[in-house]
Specification:
Layout lengths: L3 H10 L10 E6 L3 E10 L2 E11 L5 E2 L2 E2 L2 H15 L3 E6 L4 E9 L6 H12 L7 E10 L3 E10 H13 L3 E7 H9 L8 E6 L4 E7 L2 E8 L3 H12 L3 H11 L10 H25 L13 E5 L8 H9 L3 E3 L18 H6 L1 H8 L6
Helix pairs in contact: 2-4, 5-11, 6-7, 6-8
């Protein structure tokens, strides 16, 4: 009779004894690192628990695929031992995920799953028997269903499941990275349309979220490390010095920054062009019934390198579109009353892990 929101209401006022409460851990795996975050329910609401990052040496994970199972298990086993993690929610690498929109006629449809299987190979380069898929219902009427399908190769999922199992951790769920981020940065219940840009160290994820559902994802091989390397090469300085210069000056157009500005601008313009391309496609594309997409309200930036000075202003001015830095605490805690231990910049980098951990306490 009562849903998750009612259960959460009860937990707020009558939290179970601490020994009965299983911590919620979100684990975000990239090619370079594992970020983990714990959220705890208290009588005063959610609070941040343990969090951290473990570096993954090169070659263990590449483009989201686990290449060295034994080394990955060693890293996860160490993490379990150090933090006592028993169960986790894990993000799936965007590079290995296929996302597509599908309209199914109800006439003759025995099940949605069967309807998807029949046309799966028309939309993704994987045999249906080799794929795992899930879907979200976007819209329904008396004649048809509109759904958003997420698909992935079975062997990729199985490799992740295997390393966690062998490391002694139970996987509660695998989730699309974009869905976890949107859960963290879009206020619960907000069904408007947003473009989310996850600007990380080595890559950038561009997502469009509408009606609480991830409708589009794109991964670009542009990140903060590329900007740092451009400065390093141009000014013949160490990587550490180049990174310091990047953080200090960013995209400020002033006398002190007149030499660094054009170097960064050349790289950032590649990112801007991709954002513009996908933004315009969404805004102008019509579906098979000739309907326009819901317009994008604003662009939301997150990721470890997203708070580069001047970046959000540059994108906003050049696109004439509102750009906000993400508030990753919007569904977790009121920052006007409680200051999280995690810094603002750290929080931007932990958006995926926070969104995963939040999955235990929300309906979506």
């Amino acid at each position: 009779m009562f849903g998750n929101s009612f259960n959460r209401f009860l937990l707020n006022f009558f939290p179970p004894p601490e020994f009965l409460t299983e911590p919620s851990f979100g684990v975000d795996i990239s090619d370079e690192s594992i970020k983990y975050v714990e959220l705890l329910m208290t009588k005063n609401g959610l609070k941040l628990g343990r969090y951290g990052e473990k570096i993954i040496p090169p070659g263990i994970v590449e483009a989201g695929k686990i290449q060295n199972t034994k080394k990955m298990e060693e890293i996860l086993s160490t993490l379990k031992k150090e933090e006592g993690i028993k169960s986790v929610r894990v993000s799936l690498p965007e590079e290995q995920v296929y996302l597509f929109h599908l309209k199914l006629d109800k006439a003759g449809l025995r099940s949605i799953k069967e309807g998807i299987e029949l046309v799966l190979e028309e939309h993704i380069p994987i045999l249906a028997e080799d794929a795992i898929f899930d879907y979200d219902l976007v819209e329904e009427n008396s004649q048809s269903l509109e759904i958003q399908v997420t698909a992935m190769q079975k062997n990729v999922i199985e490799s992740y499941m295997c390393v966690f199992k062998n490391s002694g951790m139970k996987v509660k769920s695998f989730e699309l990275e974009a869905q976890a981020i949107s859960r963290a940065v879009v206020k619960n219940g907000d069904l408007d349309t947003y473009m989310i840009v996850d600007f990380g160290k080595k890559r950038t994820g561009i997502f469009i979220v509408s009606k609480g559902i991830v409708m589009f994802t794109f991964t670009l091989d542009v990140g903060g490390v590329m900007l740092t390397n451009m400065i390093k090469k141009t000014f013949n300085v160490s990587f550490e010095e180049a990174d310091r210069m990047k953080q200090k000056y960013g995209l400020q157009r002033n006398t002190e920054n007149q030499e660094i500005f054009p170097v960064l601008l050349n790289s950032v313009s590649v990112l801007r062009d991709e954002i513009v391309r996908h933004f315009l496609y969404w805004q102008t594309h019509k579906d098979e019934d000739g309907k326009n997409n819901t317009p994008i309200e604003k662009i939301i930036f997150c990721g470890g390198d997203s708070n580069l000075t001047g970046l959000s202003d540059y994108i906003s001015v050049s696109m004439k579109t509102p750009v906000d830095m993400a508030n990753v605490w919007v569904n977790i805690l009121d920052t006007s009353n409680s200051v999280p231990e995690m810094s603002f910049r750290q929080a931007l980098a932990f958006a995926t892990a926070l969104g995963l951990a939040l999955g235990d306490f929300t309906n979506n």
